[in-house]
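By way of example, we now present a protein record of this kind:
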Amino acid sequence: MKTAVVIGRGKIGSSLIKELRKNNWRVKFSLDNNWVYRGNKKIGDAKNYRKYIKNVDCAFLAIPTFDNGKAAFDFIKCFAQKNIPIVTCEKGSLANYYFSLRPFANKIGYNATVGGGTRLLEYLHARNAKDFTEIVAVVNGTLNFIFDEIACGQSIGKAVSKAIQRGYTEPGATKPLDVVNSELRDVFLKSVILFNVSCLSSKTLCAKNIQLPKVSVADLKSILQDKKMRCVVSISRKPQRAIGGFCVKSGKWFLSAGFKSIDGYWLPHGVNNALLIREKMNDYLLQGPGAGVEPTVLSMIQDASKKFAASPSLKL
């Protein structure tokens, strides 16, 4: 029986604990902001979690990005330095501390950070970057769901309410404009991770060095006038314009993300994500489940189930 540590006891952390037990893992302890738990019993102060790290096979990091990823980076560093693999769904650490994670690359399971259960990063990692001509992706299932609903005739208010009811949205935001801006921050972090994993540039991007403008009321009205609008990430040789997003250059490549009027065969429906890799001779398309607790949890367990020494790690 393998032994795990779960950091974070929110929706994903709680579901992880249940799913790990179903898969014959022993959860030695879990952790929230204040306490260390064995089962539901508090056994110590969260600040002292390191003293409980003995005979652990893998750590699971399931905390939100409430800072710029520094807290998550510290957890990753702690376990990796002890030669313990750590699987994460937190995005800020990879978006802002990618360069600093290089020494720990073979100890990190990262597929749940972008694409939920679609495992976009693993798919991207397996291809040869020298052949790429363009990469386009939908990496936020919540926004894709909302604007897919709008394209089918729903109002944005009803589409957002449905997304909230189904548990697709980030905690806190309820108004359409707030939900859009909250999810765009998620797209922003994921797009930086996607770019860095692509290995198209020798220079790694750092999210905190890029400015992400907020979508205004006027922007949202403009977006809603075109039912072909989707939130899309693009990596290309030419800058791409988008509403409510950003565009940044690294080496010979431009990374952009935001709302674009697009009507492509590759676009996913509902809450799904998609990755389209255009190469010199062919296009390669991957689609699958995006937002939601279950796809994220299953992707994390899939990462952990692999032998880390043999499985793909970050190309840092």
The longest helix spans residues 176-198. The chain has two domains: 2-116+295-310, 120-290.
